[in-house]
């Protein structure tokens, strides 16, 4: 059994013991016409050139597109479509676990971080690695915290300006205990 994705070397025979621990599994093409067509298009394959025993390995699906059955087997969710290349849109890593940006609501943070809207990537999915996903979540929180601090600072500046305008040129004596003038 060999994965039919171009340039993928996964076969039942060469999947090492360490990779089996990572649960590299193989999936046959769906029989449902529209889903089968989506798989073929995503992989750049033609149905007429595909053998009946053609399979795709789990490395071409996101973890979000898979689940574990009660008996411990990994399955692909209905509607999941494999991809020939999966890469983080921020750091370009392809070895870490990848997450769909839409499923984790990271699109807005990405757009605010980069200044660019998300765009259709064709066959590529809009994914980020777990490390960049965490950084985007932190960015969103950090930005919100920074904006709250800026609002508070601007309020203080306005209060200071209005206090100075109500009593221009008057110096307010320092009445704090324990502070002595330097001579």
TrEMBL record:
<dbReference type="GO" id="GO:0005654">
    <property type="term" value="C:nucleoplasm"/>
</dbReference>
<dbReference type="InterPro" id="IPR026516">
    <property type="entry name" value="THAP1/10"/>
</dbReference>
<feature type="binding site">
    <location>
        <position position="129"/>
    </location>
    <ligand>
        <name>Zn(2+)</name>
    </ligand>
</feature>
<comment type="similarity">
    <text>Belongs to the THAP1 family.</text>
</comment>
<feature type="binding site">
    <location>
        <position position="132"/>
    </location>
    <ligand>
        <name>Zn(2+)</name>
    </ligand>
</feature>
<dbReference type="InterPro" id="IPR006612">
    <property type="entry name" value="THAP_Znf"/>
</dbReference>
<dbReference type="InterPro" id="IPR038441">
    <property type="entry name" value="THAP_Znf_sf"/>
</dbReference>
<feature type="domain" description="ZAD">
    <location>
        <begin position="86"/>
        <end position="156"/>
    </location>
</feature>
<feature type="region of interest" description="Disordered">
    <location>
        <begin position="160"/>
        <end position="183"/>
    </location>
</feature>
<protein>
    <submittedName>
        <fullName>Jg19637 protein</fullName>
    </submittedName>
</protein>
<keyword id="KW-0863">Zinc-finger</keyword>
<keyword id="KW-0539">Nucleus</keyword>
<feature type="binding site">
    <location>
        <position position="88"/>
    </location>
    <ligand>
        <name>Zn(2+)</name>
    </ligand>
</feature>
<dbReference type="Pfam" id="PF05485">
    <property type="entry name" value="THAP"/>
</dbReference>
<dbReference type="GO" id="GO:0043565">
    <property type="term" value="F:sequence-specific DNA binding"/>
</dbReference>
<keyword id="KW-0804">Transcription</keyword>
<keyword id="KW-0175">Coiled coil</keyword>
<keyword id="KW-0805">Transcription regulation</keyword>
<feature type="domain" description="THAP-type">
    <location>
        <begin position="1"/>
        <end position="85"/>
    </location>
</feature>
<dbReference type="Pfam" id="PF07776">
    <property type="entry name" value="zf-AD"/>
</dbReference>
<keyword id="KW-0131">Cell cycle</keyword>
<dbReference type="InterPro" id="IPR012934">
    <property type="entry name" value="Znf_AD"/>
</dbReference>
<keyword id="KW-0862">Zinc</keyword>
<dbReference type="GO" id="GO:0008270">
    <property type="term" value="F:zinc ion binding"/>
</dbReference>
<feature type="binding site">
    <location>
        <position position="91"/>
    </location>
    <ligand>
        <name>Zn(2+)</name>
    </ligand>
</feature>
<keyword id="KW-0479">Metal-binding</keyword>
<keyword id="KW-0238">DNA-binding</keyword>
């Amino acid at each position: 059994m060999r994965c039919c994705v171009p340039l993928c070397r996964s076969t039942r025979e060469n999947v090492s013991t360490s990779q089996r621990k990572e649960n590299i599994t193989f999936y046959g093409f769906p029989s449902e016409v529209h889903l089968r067509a989506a798989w073929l298009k995503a992989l750049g394959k033609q149905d007429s050139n595909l053998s009946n025993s053609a399979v795709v390995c789990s490395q071409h699906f996101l973890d979000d597109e898979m689940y574990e059955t009660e008996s411990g087997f990994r399955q692909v969710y209905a509607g999941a479509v494999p991809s020939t290349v999966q890469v983080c849109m921020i750091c370009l890593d392809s070895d870490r676990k990848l997450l769909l940006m839409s499923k984790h609501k990271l699109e807005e943070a990405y757009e605010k971080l980069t200044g660019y809207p998300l765009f259709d990537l064709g066959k590529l999915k809009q994914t980020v690695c777990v490390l960049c996903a965490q950084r985007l979540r932190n960015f969103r929180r950090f930005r919100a915290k920074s904006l709250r601090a800026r609002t508070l600072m601007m309020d203080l500046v306005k209060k200071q300006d209005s206090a100075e305008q109500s009593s221009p040129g008057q110096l307010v004596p320092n009445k704090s205990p324990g502070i002595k003038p330097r001579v």
